[in-house]
Design a protein that fits this description.
Blueprint (H helix, E strand, L loop, with lengths): L1 H19 L3 H32 L10 H4 L1 H15 L5 H15 L3 H27 L15 H19 L2 H28 L1
Helix pairs in contact: 1-2, 1-5, 1-6, 2-4, 2-5, 2-7, 2-8, 4-6, 4-7, 5-6, 5-7
């Protein structure tokens, strides 16, 4: 959970990077990225809760062997994890692409490099979780299991995985919504600014 929580800091960095552009493309990228991030991060936290129920611990040093025990859970983890990294064709690829394109269009080449470098850190942390929780043998030092994952949690997790995948294969509806909303935001800002300019 701690690793996933720290990820939020870097992901907010992407969002603020797009916001700072103060452009329609930047605002659209912000909205798309925010929706993607909410879905993916909720998915990963649900999976962390399932791991706790199965092992009795959130500590990666005390758990392992989950892929052998529950291969389906491993696959459910991989989809949002790869999406968070930005692997195509999942939602995270389109979200990061929207941010990078908006930044590149504004002439921020070094910011594009920084955004891509942050993606490498995300890859390393996701690989760490996968190796520790799913791939390495069970160290058999964990707490007693809390029980089976709840049926509601499993259904919600599968639903979010399907949503991440659906957005990845059909990003255009969400992208179009983000562009329309961003255009509306700029229009509203212009309406607010106009009386202020007249007053000056």
């Amino acid at each position: 959970r701690r690793i996933l929580a720290f990820h939020i800091v870097s992901q907010i960095g992407y969002i603020l990077l797009a916001v700072a552009l103060a452009s329609e493309a930047g605002n659209a990228a912000t909205l798309f990225y925010t929706v993607h991030h909410i879905i993916v991060k909720a998915n990963l936290f649900l999976i962390a809760a399932m791991i706790w129920r199965l092992t009795g611990s959130y500590d990666l040093r005390r758990i392992g062997g989950l892929y052998k025990l529950r291969p389906a859970l491993g696959l459910l983890f991989l989809v949002p994890a790869l999406s968070l990294v930005g692997i195509p064709p999942l939602s995270g690829f389109w979200a990061k692409l929207a941010v990078v394109e908006a930044v590149a269009a504004s002439g921020g080449g070094w910011l594009v490099a920084a955004a891509l470098a942050a993606g490498l850190v995300t890859i390393m942390s996701m690989v760490k979780i996968w190796n520790e929780a799913f791939w390495k043998p069970d160290p058999e030092t964990g707490s007693p299991p809390a029980g089976e994952p709840s049926r509601t949690g499993v259904v919600a997790t599968i639903g979010l995985v399907l949503l991440v995948t659906a957005i990845g294969f059909q990003p255009e509806p969400l992208l179009e919504w983000a562009r329309t909303a961003a255009e509306g935001v700029l229009t509203d800002l212009d309406r607010v600014r106009a009386p202020m300019e007249v007053a000056r």
